[in-house]
Amino acid sequence: MRLSLTRPVAAFASLAALIAPAMAESILQSNSLNSCQENSLFSASLFKVVFTPNNKTANVDIVAVSSVQGNVTFDVEVSAYGFPIIKQKVSPCDMGLAGLCPMTAGKIPLNFNLPVTGDALEQVPGIAYNFPDLDATVKVIFTMTDGPEAGNAVACVEADISNGKTVDLLGVKWATAIVAGLALTSSAIMSGLGHYNAASHVAANALSLFGYFQAQAMLGLTGVPLPPVVMSWTQDFQWSMGIIRLEFMQDIFTWYQRATGGTPATIFDSLTTVSVQVEKRSLDFIEAGMSLAKRSVAMMPRSIAEPLGQAMKRDLMRRANIETSSGSYIVYGIQRVAFRAGIESTNVFMTCVAFFCLMVIFVSLAVAAFKGACEMAVKNKMMDSDKFLDFRNGWLTVLKGILFRLTLIGFPSMAIMCLWEFTQNDSAALMVLAVFFLIGMTTTLCWAAFKVIMIARRSIVMHNNPAYILFSDPQALNKWGFLYVQFRASAYYFILPYLGYLGLKAMFIAFAQHSGTVQAVGFLIIEAGALIAASVLRPWMDKSTNSFNIAICAINFVNSIFLMIFTEVFNQPRLVTGVVGVVLWIANASFALVLLLMLIVTTVIVIFRDNPDGRYTYMADDRTSFMKSQTHLTTTTELDALAATARGGKEGFNKGMDLDDDAESITSDSLRRQTERLGVPSAHSNQSFGAHSNNSFGAHSNQSFGAQSNYNNQGYGNRPQSPANPSMPFFPADGPRSPPRYQDNGSMRAPSPFDGSPPYRNQNNSPGPGAFRQQNNASPSPWQRGAGYD
């Protein structure tokens, strides 16, 4: 039976047809011809075949380099997902192809249209034109039929077939980005409105979902050979790593690299004359590339060939895009992702850096604009004056916290790209930028984690509870809360293991691009450790959040097992690899859809619910007792306003610019100076700040320790007043700090109802303000117990 050239290209089968974007015309195409044999005598620098079933023709555009002389036969094998469909022997002489019967050595340019017979069309199932990211391959082995090499295979080429349908869709990228962005934005709005409990839950889930998207993108950045559907699926999430193509930005990056002494890649400029092979089978092509290179220098003198061969080997291991002896390119790993995104391999680092900087600038401007809009709305009576009050008065501190959170979100991308740039050395300026961003972001996050640990330890020393200062001090919560608000208070340290987890994955991706097996083993160990730690420690804030994150860790661990299978270290049949690729896509697509729906439903309910905080149960760390929530602590609002009016100051945050340190925060070194100035007991005192009272003297109360207090006029010095009754001192009146006891010549102290001391009278001989006193042998009063003095 005769078989045309396009019959093997068009004959294959697939598993099932799922949802795929509709196209105006069905096609089958191939854009590269790969060598599948060492010392192959036939290769092609350009290979493009497009088969259109509607007009029953196939357009062939090929520039081949042949070292074969004589008559040959083609052993054609067509397979889909590793399963062989057709095996047949074809003679080019019977097909009447000039230049191939007999074959001659040299460069063979061919550009022609081939008619496709009805028999060939019948062998192509209709599903082949619709299944996304079809994994079909045509393999052709050249066998000599005459001469001394008769019966020997002298060349082998392989072409990957695609139908133009893919799961790498722009709509998926926009949908995932919008959902994650809106969730983070809604959590910020909820926090500004005072619903801190609801805001922390939405933000925790949104950040976990964003981390899952980045984990999917990291799979695509590895040097492991991936099936087509896995490559396309992971490409949907590369936006989370900053790999986004804008034409004018690419021109700027190319100019910048050339201006700083670098040599930009020009793969896309040569696509009309050469082919690019997107590696998906195994990393043996590196050895194949080396064998081709060795043949190129074999005829050189030994003194020249050896240094040249070593230099070529170093370049092959340094660069991820390899130029073969035929002139075509092979891309894998990070540069495979860049090529599929339409970005030159030498521009991918600057692309990530630029989009991270743009994100920081855009968010900063948005926060500043929202601050201005709120002030204008309040000034024009369009919004109540108490709306977003904490944000309006402390927006600079809130902005710093947002920038810290953006640093945490961008850390995986920047760590990978900066470390990878060290292996590429595209230009001196890019190396300097890589050092700056890597050290700067790592130092910033480590410093923030250190601050959180110090704050929590101080809170434990002062109050036997890490949650008190972490959640009662607005400076700490708004600036450092991004590191610990998603965890329970006792797991405040868990940000350090999380940063280590991201750093290890970044190093494996960046430094082991040429060894997919090493990356797969590293990912398997890291993800196994993450799953065990998450399941045993359960560090997140509540049961639902723990379940959400443990599920993500579990699916990441399963993906790492699939990644190990893709390396083919188990020598499994190619059918297994193809099926596992489809399973990975379906499993992760389903899981991502469930997470997205959960986040959307949760966010919508929180936004439109009258009491957003009421949707969530109180957490075991009792953080809601210390947080100023509009739902749980509304009784303090009037007292806060009254205290602020008495001080003649403004409610909320300190208006001063808090840019460098925590000068006004209870978590800073200024705490010691404040306690010395105000006579507050030291950190080792047994007295508590009322950790179990909703009227606690925490940072969410708008009463301050400041010098504007009117205590001096009442004869109490610079001591803070009670949050329950501003006319009373906050601490028990014992020791040398107590007001003077009653004297016959008149005193400012009123009679105490608890200690039976004689009455105090003021200058008008009338009772003065009351004060509490606790004897050493007396039990604490109910008010004292409620305020935490027990």
UniProtKB/TrEMBL annotation:
Primary place of residence? membrane
Q: Where exactly are the transmembrane stretches of this chain?
A: 348-373, 402-422, 428-450, 491-512, 518-537, 549-570, 582-608
What positions does the domain ML-like occupy? 26-168
| UniProt-listed InterPro entries | TRP_C (IPR010308), TRP_Flc/Pkd2-like (IPR040241), TRP_N (IPR032800)
Q: Where is this region: Disordered?
A: 676-790
State the family it belongs to.
Belongs to the transient receptor potential (TRP) ion channel family.
Report what the protein is called.
Flavin carrier protein 3
From the broadest rank down, the organism's phylogenetic lineage runs: Eukaryota, Fungi, Dikarya, Ascomycota, Pezizomycotina
